[in-house]
Amino acid sequence: MTDTSKQDRVLIFDTTLRDGEQSPGATMTHDEKLEIAELLDEMGVDIIEAGFPIASEGDFNAVKEIAERSKNSVICGLARANFKDIDRCYEAVKHAAKPRIHTFIGTSPLHRAIPNLTMDEMAERIHETVTHARNLCDNVQWSPMDATRTEHDYLCRVIEIAIKAGATTINIPDTVGYTAPRESADLIRMLLERVPGADEVVFATHCHNDLGMATANALAAVEAGARQIECTINGLGERAGNTALEEVVMALRVRNDIMPYRTGIDTTKIMNISRRVSSVSGFAVQFNKAIVGKNAFLHESGIHQDGVLKNIETFEIMKAADIGLHEKNIAMGKHSGRAALRSKMQELGFDLGENQLNDVFVRFKALADRKKEVYDDDLVALVQDQVGQD
Ligand code: KIV
Ligand code: ZN
């Protein structure tokens, strides 16, 4: 296995509890948020965005308690570009051993029109609010919302202002999931080249999945120099969601040969947290979702089953155990073959002779034509029936 210890470290910033919880219907209770934050901390997430403290009393209390209980992760809260939001945010995160204030403002033409600020007025607002945040806290993240649709000259100008005012992380959000991988990389590269002081801060990538490119865009940004990925468990998030944590982390691990960056995530904790987030948010994970979907490590077709029974790597590029999944990877259905049936029968404790196996196989195929999935109990019943007839 490759020695990754000297590779550049990519920080994982999880925003399941903030951007993820903003998905309509994904609201979590106070206790559920505490539980998810604990799991994120345990799995090695570098920064947990725990909520938006000004949004409600409940959000404030959740961020505060998560901050108090945090062990290793930096605890971050979100604040708009005004003193009231920033003060409230700091009141909540200050209880953490490692607090962070994350403040943002929309910088694209469409977003500038909302507060009706001129470019100069917005620049001044950024200077004042980042300075204020930095006076409260050493760790300040600043985001130009809708960065990917902001004019490059203006983007460079406001990022320079934020860095001079004390921001330590500059996050580049693709707020509406509009960018594409090459553009995502070019943008980060351009900012690193053009903005004075860019080499003194961490650049982050924050992608939404409206065109299904959030993971690809985040990884492209890393290859161009971003060193923090913002993501959520199961890709939970508004509209089509955010970059999925499990996807970027496993992509960096499985394709470390071409993307030589390391994260601090204990990947064996992925499956458990995915299931907990799905359960507490009420958002089911689609069966064919990369990494954590029910079918992601399951094989039904005869050719695939035969292949994985002989050598798991024939049809699997990573081990299920690497994400903490220890369930069986063979699903019995109408596409399954004799080899899979034999292996399944042995697993269930039946050592069938060739003739018996053939008979059970015929009956199994007939059953599989009527049922989508044939369960272990069905197979046991088939064998017992068969033995009864012999
Ligand atoms: O998508 C976005 O622009 C955000 C910001 C608040 C960072 O979530
Ligand atoms: Zn977002």
UniProtKB/TrEMBL annotation:
GO terms for cellular component: cytosol. GO terms for molecular function: 2-isopropylmalate synthase activity; acetyl-CoA C-acetyltransferase activity; manganese ion binding. The keyword Membrane does not apply. Residues 10-271 form the Pyruvate carboxyltransferase domain. It catalyses: 3-methyl-2-oxobutanoate + acetyl-CoA + H2O = (2S)-2-isopropylmalate + CoA + H(+). One of its GO terms (biological process) is L-leucine biosynthetic process. Its cofactor is Mn(2+). Mn(2+) binds at D19, H206, H208, N242. The keyword Transmembrane helix does not apply. Its EC number is 2.3.3.13. Pathway: Amino-acid biosynthesis; L-leucine biosynthesis; L-leucine from 3-methyl-2-oxobutanoate: step 1/4. It comes from the Bacteria. Keywords: Acyltransferase, Amino-acid biosynthesis, Branched-chain amino acid biosynthesis, Cytoplasm, Leucine biosynthesis, Manganese, Metal-binding, Transferase. Catalyzes the condensation of the acetyl group of acetyl-CoA with 3-methyl-2-oxobutanoate (2-ketoisovalerate) to form 3-carboxy-3-hydroxy-4-methylpentanoate (2-isopropylmalate). Homodimer. Belongs to the alpha-IPM synthase/homocitrate synthase family. LeuA type 1 subfamily. This is 2-isopropylmalate synthase. It comes from Thalassobius vesicularis. The gene is leuA.
